[in-house]
Amino acid sequence: MLKIENLNKIYLCKKALSDVNLTFTRGEIVGLFGENGAGKTTLMKCILGLHGYTGQITLDGEPITRKNIDRISFATSEHSFFPNLTPWDHRCFYKEHFPHFSDKRFEGLMRFFGLPMRFKPLRSFSTGQKNQFEVILALCQGADYILMDEPFAGNDLFNREDFYKVLLGILEPGETVILSTHLIEEVSGFIGRAVMIHEGKIVGDVTADELDESGKSLVAYVKETYGYRSDRVSRALDDIVGEDGE
Amino acid sequence: MRIFDRLEALTPPGISPRRLLGMLAAGAALSVVRSFEFLIKLYDALRTVFDYHPQTGEPIIIEGRRMPMFWALAEQSFIGFAIAAAVALAFIGYYYASYRMGSRSIYLMRRLPHPWEMHKRALTLPVMGALAMLLLGALTVLVYLGIYMLVTPEAVLTAGAMEQLKEIV
After folding, report:
1. Which residues in chain B are contacts of A49 at CB distance < 8 A?
2. Is the confidence at residue A245, as pLDDT, over 70?
3. Which end of chain A is less crowded, N or C, counting CB atoms within 10 A of the terminal residue's CB?
4. Which structural domain range is residue B86 located in?
């Protein structure tokens, strides 16, 4: 269980995360939603220890240290691979450092996405291919908790749909995915829980079952949680194009 | 090839050690060439303390002439080694920066189970390279010191020069 208690993070004078309390259990697929700058990336980086913070983050009751960090993997749209290495080189590097690295899954996913294994360094891949490879590494590390931060920025719709199907097909029951994305509608079909973050605070946390019972769609729930006004656009347009003095 | 593979394990992944090794080799060669300045100065200094017998051609020490002290002759002849060592150390900055070039591999390096992997790959070769340059510089100084002592008669050494040489050794 990944438990976050009273997490606070301040950047200079700005509070990036404020009293965040969350618990992720094994086997969940969680969507993490929020506007740009809401704190999604910061939350993930705090979990990984890439940012300092106040509060407590524990993994099965233990603080996250070098001893258990291999149980968490991370795929980011910023990319964390080595641009001058080939996928094969990455495989060797991961195998050396992550004892539970899954060779079988790596080779299967590389084949599925049609990515070249040798001779071509990552820097020569297209953005879509780089994203795919970033996600493949996160899925193959052998981690129990897989954090993905906007992993599909730059991938086309077909590519993303392929990925969702593969993800659902390959995940083991004990693997947890925490997926930060703006593509709410696209992921609504396969996430089991949605967490909403706004200005560094958790403003919504709902399971798919709870949504089903309430009869609301995920998009409707997100809009409601954020207080989205559907007449906002028409009012703004009226203000902009409306005649003066009316 | 196997040695080269081992060296690659001591640089950030995807960054070849060739550039640093090339710099070290060039730095060593240029520093040694630069140090020849000392030999030229030593030769010039020797010419000022000796005269040659007009008939026999044998060298005669000119009365009252003294050889400059070792370090006064050396001046900046060995500066090349220090510069090469400084450039090697500058690679530390380049290696750390490489974790942020083209991607953010720093995120991966910082979450590796082995806590020193990132620093090991950024520090080892530049520090070893800098030490090697300084060692080579020290060896060159010792060799030239030997030459200085060999070719300079004790009679023309400045007062206190022998003590200084012993200190250096």
Report:
1. 110-111
2. no
3. C
4. 2-168
